[in-house]
Write a structure and sequence with these properties.
Strand content: 15-25%
Shape: globular
Largest sheet: 4 strands, mixed
Radius of gyration: 15 Å
Order of helices and strands: EHEHEEHH
CATH superfamily: Glutaredoxin
Number of strands: 4
Structural class: alpha+beta
CATH class: Alpha Beta
Strand order of the largest sheet: 2-1-3-4
Number of helices: 4
Number of domains: 1
Length: 105
């Protein structure tokens, strides 16, 4: 069983979700990458977190884009090895925390 590298968080009736779906499908097909779609209306937690951001694109479980999907940015992100995006995200969070501690307001 393979894990999808791309997850599209969407809701019914969302025209931006329709556009995102087209871009994601094209890129995934071109690169041979699995993707899935998750309806945020099926989860209270997803509704609270993502209602105002949809469509949201996750790559390897990390938020990549919201509102609009850039085909170029998505292709670049998928060229990274799986899990590398998550590592970069954690490093960025660590740097933010360190700089706030050092230079906090």
């Amino acid at each position: 069983m393979s894990v999808s590298r791309i997850t599209l968080l969407s809701r019914p009736g969302c025209h931006l979700c329709d556009e995102a779906r087209q871009v994601i499908s094209k890129v995934a097909d071109d690169l041979g990458v699995d993707w899935e779609e998750r309806d945020i209306t099926q989860s209270e937690a997803d509704l609270r977190e993502y209602w105002e951001k949809i469509p949201v694109t996750l790559v390897d479980g990390v938020q990549h884009d919201f509102w609009r999907v850039s085909e170029e940015r998505l292709r670049r992100a998928l060229r990274l090895s799986p899990g590398l995006g998550r590592t970069i995200w954690r490093l960025a969070q660590t740097l933010c925390i360190c700089s706030q501690t050092t230079y906090g307001s």
